[in-house]
């Protein structure tokens, strides 16, 4: 897949209203600071389209990006959705619960209308998935939303520990080793695999 262009389509508070048109959507979810916005920029070959920050909670709205691409001699479009991260503990407990419900509301709506093609669930490759990650994974599985587990920041791992980390992540989610894609938005490891999965999902 060759990305031809990308732009911010819509910024949304909650409750989320889906963008006009029935473009296939790929969603990026995961805890705050895990690297969702950085991955979107890397996949699109853009430096600063999605805003990133070292302080968690940068993305506080649902941001939709429209992407034009070419594959197999055809041109088409899809939408990437950058979700606010969960587990950002500056939010009060109550608003965290509301927020979870609203994210779920959007995902349910998008999957029922058939536009939601895949969720990339990002987990930090250095850590075992937490309860929120596990809940999110199980929730997607329950609704039959295809979910790809992408383990971020692989550049922070020693070569010798990569396999074990991926095994541990897979085991904690009850999936197989091969279903976790280890990647880095810094070095580009795993990015072509994620692009292939994206192409397959949105075409
Ligand atoms: P929220 O919007 O708060 O939910 O965060 P996010 O998941 O969008 O994370 P973001 O992309 O803003 O990245 C958070 C921090 O991690 C930034 O300081 C990034 O530079 C850093 N980061 C992202 N990806 C990588 C990576 O592959 N390797 C390393 N070393 N750092 C990364
Ligand atoms: Mg972000």
What does this structure look like?
With 203 residues, the chain is an alpha/beta fold. The protein is 32% helix and 27% strand. The chain has helices at residues 36-44, 93-112, 131-142, 162-173, 191-202; strands at 2-12, 25-30, 62-71, 74-82, 116-124, 147-152, 180-182. Strands 1-3-4-2-5-6-7 form a seven-stranded mixed sheet, with helices on both faces. Helix 4 links the parallel strand 6 and strand 7 (180-182). The longest helix is centred in the middle third of the chain and has 20 residues, at 93-112. The protein is globular, with a radius of gyration of 16 Å. Magnesium ion (MG) is lined by residues 36-37, 58-59, 82.
Structure described in brief:
The chain is α/β, with parallel strands linked by helices and 203 residues long.
Architecture blueprint of SSEs:
Blueprint: E1 2-12, E2 25-30, H1 36-44, E3 62-71, E4 74-82, H2 93-112, E5 116-124, H3 131-142, E6 147-152, H4 162-173, E7 180-182, H5 191-202
Parallel strand pairs: 2-4, 2-5, 5-6, 6-7
Antiparallel strand pairs: 1-3, 3-4
Bound molecules: guanosine-5'-triphosphate and magnesium ion (MG).
Magnesium ion binds at residues 36-37, 58-59, 82.
Uncertain segments: none
Helix content: 25-40%
The class by helix and strand makeup works out as: alpha/beta
- Approximate shape: globular
Q: Indicate the proportion of strand residues.
A: 25-35%
Distance between the termini: 10 Å
Q: What series of H and E elements makes up the topology?
A: EEHEEHEHEHEH
For the biggest β-sheet, the strand order reads 1-3-4-2-5-6-7
- Unique ligands: guanosine-5'-triphosphate, magnesium ion
Largest sheet: 7 strands, mixed
The average pLDDT value, as a whole number, equals: 90
Number of strands: 7
Query: How many helices does DSSP assign?
Result: 5
